[in-house]
C-alpha cells in the first residue's frame, strides 16, 4: 500500500451520510458452503448473555483463525461492574464487535468502496487492497468496533469469519469455540434457522437501534430490565 494512494484524500470535502435498505428473499436452509455460492442469505448472530461466562475463548479463537495481531481485536467480551453483595456477587458479559448493520454507515462513507456489504450474505466486510486508510469508516461506525490493522494498514473488523471458517462451510470461530453455546449464528432470512427461532423464542435487544442501522447482532439480556430496544 503506497503513500500516494493514501494522500489522494488530502483536502477531501464533507462526507454525506445516506441510508438504504437491502432486501433479501427467505429461502430454505442450506449448508454454509452452499450459502456462499447461491447468495440468498442474511447472516446474523445471537449472543446469549445468560449463558456467557466471560471465558474469552471466542476472542482467542477469532485471533487464531483470522490471524489477528496482538494489540487489536475483532471481538471483545466486556465484563460489567460486580452486581450484588458478597458472597452473592454476579457479573454480566456482553459482546462488542461489528454489528453487520443492514444500513451500515461505514459502507456509505467509504470513498473507495473498500467498505462494502456482501450481496450474497449481508456480511459487512473490508477490501484491504482498496482501503486508503482515510479513517472515515472508523469515525462513522456508531459502535466503534473498527480498527486499523497494524500489518496491512487497512481498516479491519469482525467479518463473521467470511474468508476463513465460513468459506469452508464451518461456523464462525467464536461460535465453534464457545463452551457454553452462548453464540448462535445463521440465516435470518430463514424462519426455520436456529438463529431465527431463537430470536422469536427469547427476549432480545440490539444496540443503538434508534440510529436506524438495523444491526444483525442480537443479544439475550442477562437480567430483566436490561432491554435497550
Automatic annotation (TrEMBL):
The keyword RNA-binding does not apply. It comes from the Bacteria. GO terms for molecular function: 4 iron, 4 sulfur cluster binding; metal ion binding. Keywords: 4Fe-4S, Iron, Iron-sulfur, Metal-binding, Repeat. PROSITE patterns: 4FE4S_FER_1, 4FE4S_FER_2, TAT. InterPro entries: 4Fe4S_Fe-S-bd (IPR017896), 4Fe4S_Fe_S_CS (IPR017900), Cyt_c_NO2Rdtase_NrfC (IPR017567), ET_IronSulfur_Cluster-Binding (IPR050954), TAT_signal (IPR006311). Residues 43-71, 85-120, 122-151 form the 4Fe-4S ferredoxin-type domain. PANTHER family: PROTEIN NRFC (PTHR43177), PROTEIN NRFC HOMOLOG (PTHR43177:SF3). This is 4Fe-4S ferredoxin.
Amino acid at each position: 500500500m503506497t503513500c500516494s494512494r493514501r494522500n489522494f484524500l488530502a483536502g477531501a470535502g464533507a462526507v454525506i451520510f445516506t441510508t438504504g435498505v437491502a432486501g433479501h428473499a427467505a429461502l430454505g436452509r442450506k449448508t454454509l458452503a452452499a450459502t456462499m455460492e447461491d447468495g440468498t442469505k442474511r447472516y446474523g448472530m445471537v449472543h446469549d448473555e445468560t449463558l456467557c461466562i466471560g471465558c474469552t475463548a471466542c476472542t482467542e479463537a477469532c485471533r487464531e483463525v483470522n490471524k489477528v495481531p496482538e494489540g487489536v481485536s475483532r471481538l471483545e467480551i466486556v465484563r460489567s461492574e460486580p452486581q450484588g453483595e458478597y458472597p452473592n456477587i454476579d457479573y454480566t458479559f456482553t459482546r462488542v464487535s461489528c454489528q453487520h448493520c443492514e444500513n451500515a454507515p461505514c459502507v456509505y462513507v467509504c470513498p473507495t468502496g473498500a467498505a462494502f456489504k456482501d450481496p450474497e450474505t449481508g456480511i459487512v466486510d473490508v477490501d484491504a487492497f482498496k482501503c486508503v486508510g482515510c479513517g472515515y469508516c472508523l469515525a462513522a461506525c456508531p459502535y466503534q468496533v473498527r480498527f486499523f490493522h497494524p500489518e496491512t494498514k487497512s481498516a479491519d473488523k469482525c467479518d463473521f469469519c467470511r474468508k476463513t471458517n465460513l468459506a469452508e462451510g464451518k461456523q464462525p470461530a467464536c461460535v465453534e469455540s464457545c463452551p457454553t453455546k452462548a453464540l448462535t449464528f445463521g440465516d435470518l432470512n430463514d424462519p426455520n434457522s436456529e438463529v431465527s427461532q431463537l430470536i422469536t423464542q427469547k427476549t432480545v435487544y440490539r444496540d443503538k437501534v434508534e440510529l436506524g442501522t438495523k444491526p444483525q447482532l442480537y443479544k439475550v439480556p442477562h437480567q430483566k430490565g436490561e432491554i435497550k430496544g
